[in-house]
Design brief:
Layout lengths: L1 H8 L10 E6 L2 E4 L3 H10 L3 E2 L5 E3 L1 H9 L3 E4 L8 H11 L3 H13 L3 E4 L7 E4 L12 E7 L6 H13 L3 E7 L5 E6 L5
Parallel strand pairs: 1-5, 8-9
Antiparallel strand pairs: 1-2, 2-4, 3-4, 6-7, 7-8, 9-10
Helix pairs in contact: 3-4, 3-5
Length: 191
C-alpha cells in the first residue's frame, strides 16, 4: 500500500511527442508516412506531400524542424544525424546553405510561410501572414546574400525582372557574420 500511495502522489509526466523519422536523400529529406508528418504539412505547410504519404522537405526546412525537435534525420545507413553533421552534408550539396538557412529561419520565426522558388528563378517565395500556399499567391520572392558578397547591376536587374514578371515583390535578405538578417524590398515604380 505504501508503494501505491507514493505513486499516486507523483504527478504523471507529460507524454513526450514522438519525433517524426526522416531520411537524408541527396538534396532533400523524406519523412515517414505518418499522421504526425501529415499534421506538420496541414498545420504549417512544411514540405510537399508525395503520393506515398511522405513529406519531401527542403534542406532548410529539415534543419529548422530538427532545431525545433519535430523530426530526427537518419542517413542512408540509418544512423541518426546531429545538427552539425546535417549542416556539413547540406553545405556540400548547397555551398550557400548557411546563408539561405539564416534567411529561412528568420522569416519562419516571424510567422511567415516560406517555400523554395526554383521555378521562379529565386531561392524562396514567401506568403503573407495567415496565407497558406494554394490559398493565394506568394507576396515576395527572396534572394539571400552574405553582406560581403557583390552583385552586378545585370544580376540585380535580372532578379528584379523575375519578381516583376511573377507579380511578386523582391526581397533581398542580407545576412551578416552573426547570422542576423536585414531585408530590403525592391519594387518597380513609375514616376
Amino acid at each position: 500500500m505504501a508503494k501505491e500511495a507514493k505513486t499516486e502522489e507523483n504527478p504523471k509526466k507529460p507524454k513526450r511527442k514522438k519525433l517524426i523519422k526522416a531520411i537524408f536523400a541527396k538534396e532533400r529529406v523524406l519523412t515517414e508516412a505518418s499522421e504526425a508528418a501529415r499534421d506538420l504539412y496541414n498545420q504549417s505547410r512544411y514540405g510537399d506531400v508525395l503520393e506515398n504519404g511522405r513529406l519531401q522537405l527542403s534542406l532548410p526546412e529539415a534543419l529548422y524542424l530538427m532545431e525545433k525537435k519535430k523530426i530526427k534525420i537518419l542517413d542512408y545507413r540509418r544512423k541518426k544525424l546531429d545538427i552539425d553533421s546535417f549542416i556539413r552534408k547540406a553545405q556540400k550539396i548547397e555551398p550557400n546553405f548557411w546563408i539561405r538557412y539564416c534567411v529561412f529561419k528568420d522569416i519562419r520565426n516571424r510567422g511567415y510561410i516560406i517555400k523554395t522558388a526554383l521555378k521562379f528563378g529565386a531561392d524562396f517565395r514567401v506568403y503573407d501572414r495567415g496565407i497558406k500556399p494554394g490559398e493565394d499567391h506568394a507576396k515576395w520572392i527572396v534572394y539571400p546574400v552574405h553582406e560581403g558578397s557583390t552583385t552586378t547591376w545585370y544580376e540585380f536587374a535580372a532578379k528584379n525582372r523575375v519578381a516583376h514578371s511573377t507579380k511578386k515583390r523582391l526581397l533581398i535578405g542580407i545576412v551578416d557574420d552573426e547570422g542576423d538578417v536585414t531585408y530590403y524590398e525592391i519594387r518597380w515604380i513609375r514616376p
